[in-house]
Amino acid sequence: MRVLIADDHPVVRKGLREIVASEHDMIVVGEAKSGDEALDLAKKLDWDVAVFDYAMPGCSGADLVREVKRQHPGRPVLVLSILPEEVHAGQVFKAGGAGYINKGSANEDLTGAIRKVVGGGKYVSPAFAEKLATELAEGGEKPPHNLLSDREYRVMWLIASGKHINEIAAEMTLSPSTISTYRARILKKLGLSNNAELVRYAVKYRLI
After folding, report:
1. pLDDT per position as a tens digit, 194-207
2. Can you give the residue ranges of every domain in the chain?
3. C-alpha separations of 98 from 35, 115, 122, 194 in Å
């Protein structure tokens, strides 16, 4: 199985490479340090599965997953994040992702997840699968941020993480005015008035 990996931290890429190399039938065929570089390598290389960090410079998160799936619809994409599955997994799966792994469990779960998604399955941890099943059985209401588009969700998350409008614009290669428009939509959809309330909302729902 040929694996394409992307993470903006060299130490993490090294760790992922070593985990993959521990399996006799897996090999890392390319490494990217940004979402844009990952898109470029995905076009140039032959690969069977991609493993991407959720938050990287340039195109990343659900936007990156969606673009890779648009260009390579038959190939699975796994997403890694330091945040728990309930934070971003929904966005990843909506974008066409095949699985979501918390970085804290990558040593134990990554190769098994790769095998599962290459075989056509989806991967979430057993604990998260149980949580989803419980929520469905109880008919629980979805939080307001689930109504955001993928791009709105990313802008919301970046603002809540402390990024300024100009920083977000540069990272997403959009204009500051466009980011401000997204911010206004986000606040309206979430019923919030300002960035401070947005940060409190993100903390409440463990989004940061």
Report:
1. 999 999 998 888 88
2. 2-135, 144-204
3. 17, 11, 5, 35
Q: What fold is seen in the domain 144-204? A: Arc Repressor Mutant, subunit A (1.10.10)
Instruction: Round the CA-based radius of gyration of the chain to a whole number and report it.
Output: 17
Range list of H helices, 48-105: 61-71, 85-94
Q: Is 18 exposed, middle or buried (0-12, 13-18, 19+ CB in 10 A)?
A: exposed
Residue type, position 169, single letter? A
List pLDDT tens digits, range 19-31.
999 999 999 999 9
- Strand, helix or coil for residue 6: strand
> 137-164: per-residue pLDDT in tens?
655 567 888 888 888 988 998 999 899 9
Assign domain 2-135 to its CATH superfamily.
Response regulator (3.40.50.2300)
Tokens of 171: 């990272």
